[in-house]
Amino acid sequence: MTWKAWIIGSILLAALLATAALVAPRHLPEDYLLRKEHRQRDQALREREKILWEELGPADRIRVRMWDKKLREGQWALADSLASFWMRRGKLLMACKALTLRASLSGLPSHYESAFDFCQAALDMEQEDDRAHVLTTLRQTAEQALSTDSLMPSAQVAMAVVEVHEGGNPMAGIGRLRRLLQREPRNVKALLQMGHFSMLSGQADKALERYLMAIQAAPQNASVAFYVADAYARLGQLDSATSWLARLINLESNPTTRASVIQYFQENHNIRINR
């Protein structure tokens, strides 16, 4: 290669690199941007975990280290103890991570379902700062479950929840649920989530339709009965709401939960019922 050819080649290479540096930031593919966002959220999650860890006393740190070590060795049954430990301290994010760790270690669909259910519930109860971290944990667990079974219903519902709450493309989550309901029209969790999404968008009437479909599929499910009663109350149909509340109280076996439900309807809908 002559010196002239080498110089020309160097100039062309430099121009190409400069052009790429100018163009790339404006035309980054969507999947690249999503991966970048997930990396940033993972880093924020690790920082949040460090803060939560520093709040523990020495004895609790030793206990958590012991449980975590055994969990990583494959003794996933101890995740219940670890999750309970964090729940008692009101750290729902860490409890969520313990349950998802158990699911990843065991690979059992029932464990994935438990993790998904808890993480979805934590979205409503957790403080705003940690909701994004719960979504990250939920996404990671759902992706892992779908990599082993792409049609796992509970994982499809969990991923739909992530897609809707992250806000980037909520219709992707709605479409995912609709496809699931085409395969399984009586899938209670999918019907409930469709109802929840309708309620979030201010469509209480459509939410009630979904909840009624869910209670037909699971007539003894106290959680579904709660949403039916709540939807009737939000629509101002208090007689129907009271009737469903009575049914809910009969279905719910836990006295603490019954008391909480009665208090909720009294405070939020001014509906009182004999205990």
Write the layout of secondary structure elements.
Elements: H1 3-23, H2 30-54, H3 58-72, H4 79-88, H5 92-106, H6 109-125, H7 128-148, H8 153-166, H9 170-183, H10 188-200, H11 204-217, H12 222-234, H13 238-251, H14 255-269
Helix pairs in contact: 2-7, 4-5, 5-6, 5-7, 6-7, 6-8, 7-8, 8-9, 8-10, 9-10, 10-11, 11-12, 12-13, 13-14
Written overview of the protein:
- The protein has 275 residues and is mostly helical.
- The chain has 2 domains: 32-218, Serine Threonine Protein Phosphatase 5, Tetratricopeptide repeat (Alpha Horseshoe); 220-275, no CATH class.
- Helices cover 80% and strands 0% of the residues.
- The protein contains 14 helices and no strands.
- The chain has helices spanning 3-23, 30-54, 58-72, 79-88, 92-106, 109-125, 128-148, 153-166, 170-183, 188-200, 204-217, 222-234, 238-251, 255-269.
- The radius of gyration is 24 Å and the shape is globular.
- The N and C termini lie far apart (93 Å).
- The model is unreliable at 1-32 (pLDDT under 50).
